[in-house]
Design a protein that fits this description.
single chain; alpha/beta; TIM Barrel
């Protein structure tokens, strides 16, 4: 399953369940970090994970397990499931603004601007009521459009939305994807394009959800790009290359160095794990990712 298929299928939700969890995440804190990066990593309070990669579990089943690991935030949850997060004491570190998001369509299509504005203008105040601070949006597929026209059109639609985002303290974040492997024809497939869009929108409430996996596949030069453009980045996603699996030693990104580069910028936002688990114990890769990045 990829993220697009998961969005089409809809999220899985189980019956209501109330649990009591320990305040201290002993499962994570008891593990030593042989890499030597323990004091320089992203703290648990800034780590998250993307629900769609564990969509084979209901939120009611998954959230207590995440709590035991020390996590208190989860990415990419639609509005109908926000009450479940509240019940379990979780925040949504990156929210979907619509129940059925479509990565292939977005702000580069001017014919969708009214529809997108109506949906997000309704959701953003609801986010503020829950205390959520970030909402993901998408550029959409080119479908014959050139990148310059796409920039102008996307900036026009996003500028219209910014006053509502500013009023409610929400940061709208456009996610970058690779178009080489996972999302053919997607326009927001480079750091340069997304940074230019930020300059055109010209608002502190518009930033880039910078996906480390996607940008390694698309353009490489991860650490230098973080150093050069980090003021534009409001959120990070992780996964291993190739294959979008665990971030350990069997893939090409050396995450301890990447995390150090992020920390060196003074970053205080969320880093969310977005890999497809392959181990028999599906949660073991997530435990290891938390350790590597923390």
């Amino acid at each position: 399953m990829d993220r697009r298929s998961f969005l089409k299928a809809g999220s899985l939700a189980g019956t209501g369940l109330t649990v009591s969890v320990p305040a201290i995440a002993t499962e994570v804190l008891a593990q030593a970090d042989p890499s030597g990066h323990a004091n320089n990593g992203i703290p648990l309070s800034q780590q998250s994970m993307c629900y769609w990669t564990y969509g084979f579990m209901s939120l009611e089943e998954l959230l207590p397990k995440l709590k035991k690991m020390g996590l208190s935030a989860i990415d990419l949850i639609t509005p109908k499931d926000w009450p479940i997060l509240k019940e379990h004491g979780f925040t949504c570190s990156m929210a979907y603004g619509r129940e059925k998001e479509d990565i292939t369509t977005g702000f580069i299509d001017e014919q969708l601007h009214d529809e997108l504005y109506t949906a997000y203008a309704k959701t953003i105040p609801q986010m503020a009521e829950y205390g959520y601070k970030s909402m993901v949006v998408f550029a959409g597929n080119r479908r014959g459009r050139n990148d310059l026209d796409g920039l102008r059109t996307a900036a026009k639609g996003l500028k219209r939305l910014m006053p509502i985002a500013v009023e409610h303290g929400v940061t709208v974040q456009l996610e970058v994807f690779n178009s080489k492997v996972d999302h053919p024809d997607y326009m927001g497939d480079s750091t340069a394009w997304a940074v230019t869009l930020c300059d055109l929108v010209d608002s502190e409430n518009f930033k880039i959800l910078w996906d480390i996996y996607h940008m390694q596949v698309q353009e490489g030069n991860i650490i230098q790009t973080i150093k050069d453009y980090h003021p534009y980045f409001g959120h990070y996603h992780t996964a291993g290359v190739p294959g979008r699996h665990e971030i350990g030693n069997n893939q090409e990104i050396y995450y301890p160095a990447v995390i150090q580069a992020i920390k060196d910028t003074g970053y205080t936002g969320y880093l969310a794990h977005e890999f497809l688990p392959t181990e028999e114990d599906k949660l073991q890769g997530l435990r290891e990712a938390i350790r590597i990045c923390g």
